[in-house]
Design a protein that fits this description.
With 171 residues, the protein is α/β, with parallel strands linked by helices. The chain has 8 helices and 7 strands. The protein has a single domain (2-168), classed as Uracil-DNA Glycosylase, subunit E. It has helices at 25-30, 41-49, 55-60, 63-72, 102-108, 120-127, 133-136, 155-162, and strands at 2-4, 16-20, 75-79, 81-85, 95-99, 114-118, 140-144. The strands form 2 sheets. It has a 4-stranded parallel beta sheet with strand order 3-2-6-7. It has a 3-stranded antiparallel beta sheet with strand order 1-4-5.
């Protein structure tokens, strides 16, 4: 099945970029990033951006509110791949991938100085085009554990690693 990534969630103020590989089937069906109900992404983002968050804030937040939280904190979200073929939702199933144009993206978003990868695979796919000077110049690249429900790593460990994003936020 051919899959196309979503448009990036970003604005000209973004200083941090979080890159996944490609939306899973539940996200595609929901029409939103990290749309699988068991994906830890939104819960973690609330914990990163609102240290005194309440669980019902995440559960009751609609997608528009979640996107606003990202933008308020100067966080952009996108995927490394623009197109791919994949059966199911697992990154290991990806074939015939085409990368997004990061040279153009970073030229249009010069304030982004830190890129976080949501999982090892996103970092590996990005690494294949990182040699482009305009992509790697003056940016930090950090791989975080995947928030995917298929990641069996302890969720407290995943959260502990993701919390480091706080020190890169401008707020």
């Amino acid at each position: 099945m051919e899959i196309k990534c979503f448009d990036p969630i970003t604005d000209c103020q973004a200083t941090v970029l979080i890159l996944g590989t490609m939306p899973g089937l539940a996200s595609i069906k929901a029409g939103q990033y990290y749309g699988h109900p068991d994906n830890l992404f939104w819960d973690i983002i609330f914990r990163v951006c609102i240290p005194d968050w309440k669980i019902d804030e995440v559960v009751s937040a609609d997608y528009k509110t979640k996107v606003k939280l990202l933008q308020t904190n100067n966080i952009a979200v996108w995927d490394v791949l623009q197109f791919c073929n994949r059966s199911g939702s697992l990154d290991k199933e990806i074939i015939n991938q085409i990368h997004n144009d990061f040279k153009d993206f970073f030229q249009n978003h010069p304030k982004i100085k830190t890129v976080f990868f949501n999982g090892k695979k996103a970092g590996e796919y990005f690494e294949k085009q990182k040699s482009e000077p305009s992509i790697s110049m003056d940016r930090d690249f950090i791989t975080l554990p995947s928030t995917s429900p298929s990641n069996t790593t302890n969720s407290f460990y995943v959260l502990k690693e993701w919390i480091q994003i706080r020190k890169y936020l401008n707020n």
